[in-house]
Amino acid sequence: MSRAFRTIFLAMSLLLSAAATVAWAQQDLKTQINALASAKLPDIPAIVQALAAAGDPSVVPVLEALGEGDLYFRKSDKSVFLTKPAGANLSLIDPLSGEVVGEEPKGALTKIRVNNNLRRAIRSALGGLTLLSPDRNVRLQAADAVLKSPSAENLGLLEAAIAKETDAVVKTRMETARSVSVLGSDLGADEKKAAIETIRDKIGGRDAIGILMAAAGKADPAVKPDIDAAIASIQGNLALWDTLQNIWYGMSLGSVLLLAAIGLAITFGVMGIINMAHGEMVMLGAYSTFVVQDVIRDNYPGLFDVSLAIALPVAFLVTGAVGLIIERGVIRFLYGRPLETLLATWGVSLILQQLVRTIFGPTNQEVGNPSWMAGSFPLGGMTITWNRLWIVVFSLSVFFALLMLMKRSAYGLQMRAVTQNRRMASSMGIRTPWVDALTFALGSGIAGIAGVALSQIDNVSPNLGQSYIIDSFMVVVFGGVGNLWGTLVGALSLGVLNKFLEPTVGAVLGKILVLVLIILFIQKRPRGLFALKGRAIEA
Description:
Elements: H1 2-38, H2 44-53, H3 60-67, E1 71-74, E2 80-86, E3 89-93, E4 100-105, E5 109-111, H4 116-129, H5 136-148, H6 155-164, H7 168-183, H8 189-203, H9 205-216, H10 224-271, H11 278-299, H12 307-329, H13 338-360, E6 376-379, E7 382-385, H14 386-408, H15 410-420, H16 422-427, H17 432-454, H18 469-479, H19 484-505, H20 507-524, H21 535-538
Antiparallel strand pairs: 1-2, 1-5, 2-3, 3-4, 6-7
């Protein structure tokens, strides 16, 4: 009996001792929280670190309220409270228990001031407190918070969290956060060298350079060479990825130029027509996309993701029909008179622009991206947007489809025959006027589907086509008039060249330099990169 009594007495003593310890700890936390009321602003981060070091999650609401500028103290006794509106007054909430303990007029309370340095300290403290949360997302956010606001005081919490972590992604993020915190700690040179390698390999990029450069100013002489070597290595990788990114941007621009120029290459090569209204065919294709999407939004919203697939044949037929009307109504009377053709098609372009302004207005029209063209994805040190990627794929698909049409169809054979020797083709029974008409309609239709693609990356307005007409002519002349492979190589070459010139000399001067280079090139090769062959052409 006495043994059982002693056991019960011991258990009760332990429980009472634990309760007293908890109460004492809570009172100590309360004292530290109330110290925020009297502390000067530069001294508050130290109090925040002390609260976080206790490891008690009940201080999280206090730190969050402090970071948001919503923590108050009562003027009469310097007690700190959380608050919430209660009519003209504020309800006082105990910062640890969360219970409402009273109500005071707003004038009886003072807000505790915060600044950016204090907010960083709070983010770091909150990160350390939530590193052991059972919620994976909370732990990941906590590791990110410590990574952004590193502190040597969080090393113990980080190491404990890393030892218990089972999720590979979260553990890697915690190890990275620990490495950043190690650089500002009193640990030895070997630990800091290992941390530098982790920062270089797992963070990389400009963020890592910023972290390492900040650490270099107060680094030990023993680790300074390692920091410099890591920065040099990261800068080399960045230069490589920047080059690849510029090449990708150039290919993206080149694919846009290819779409805009490929129809012009056909009409210019077969018919010798300087069509200044070609840009307006691109613009009509973009407006066809707008109309299709507008109808789908109003009547069949579930079909929006396939709106571009519906817009492609619509744009091709609309612009192809307009091109056929222009050729039959204007251009066929002006063959052999290039200056008059240029002036006539320029007049047609002005008419089409004004017609679109009258129908749709002068402002930009909204054309949306389907879900499968929205967003982006990382590729190494590059960022690839889905809309640009699909436009590159689409432009190459159009190019190869047109190439097959030219090489594998009877119509393509007739077109090539008219291009190489119009008189001989006519004498062989080919109706050259209708080849001209259908070629102009085909070139206009391709310009229309180019407008569908461009509507996803540019403003749809009456002036859309004017942005691409000059570049399209440069692509055609540079690549070789009437040669599709020349158009492809010319478009991609000029696109990449533009993107490498723009960062150094600016967009406008870059275009001027490209034009000068093309003029110099044409002096040496008047018929472009890939000249067509044929008796009439050679003559």
